[in-house]
Specification:
With 172 residues, the protein is α+β, with helices and mostly antiparallel strands. The chain has one domain: Toxin ADP-ribosyltransferase, Chain A, domain 1. The termini are far apart.
Length: 172
């Protein structure tokens, strides 16, 4: 008999064995979340290194650019490796560090995962440099050809958080 709780535990244990991915990843959003102050996520969060994939070819109302510190790159194990999926494990802390906009006015929320920095990581050294790097990645993706979306909705959902006071689940 299939036990979903056991399967989830085995999945999370397998994820922990993979090397961490530090870098900028993207997630499409149906609306702009209010993230400040830092909030704990619940469940795994699917992100992509490719903004086109994460936003279903820039069709989402908003975009999250996330500085991943403990994500796991699962592209090598995916049925769709072109999705360039990086999974953020459950209960990571996300903090909104900046807001910007695409040229068409759509909001981009820049979020940092609060975790011990990897000294080998090649991340922008300042907030201004991070915003510039996100803009550059988004511009390059917008200038490219549309991507084939193999799993609609996979990277496009609200962020789900654990309510810090009651332990109940909340949605932003």
């Amino acid at each position: 008999m299939f036990d979903p709780a056991e399967a989830a535990t085995r999945f999370l244990q397998a994820l922990e064995k993979l090397p961490t991915y530090t870098g900028i990843v993207f997630h499409g959003l149906p609306s702009v979340p209010q993230l400040a102050p830092a909030r704990w996520t619940r469940g795994v969060t699917a992100t992509s290194k490719d903004p086109r994939i994460a936003t279903e070819n820039f069709s989402t109302p908003a975009i999250a650019a996330i500085v991943s510190r403990t994500g796991r790159d699962i592209a090598a194990f995916s049925a769709h490796p072109a999705e360039q999926e990086v999974v953020l494990p459950p209960e990571v802390v996300l903090l909104e560090v900046a807001h910007t906009r695409l040229p068409d006015g759509r909001p981009v929320v820049i979020v940092e995962q609060l975790a011990e920095p990897d000294p080998r990581a090649d991340l922008p050294p300042t907030l201004d440099a991070l915003v510039a790097a996100v803009h550059e990645l988004l511009q390059l993706a917008q200038a490219g050809e549309p991507s084939t979306i193999t799993t609609p909705g996979k990277f496009v959902e609200p962020f789900f958080f654990l309510d810090e006071e009651s332990g109940a689940h909340t949605e932003s």
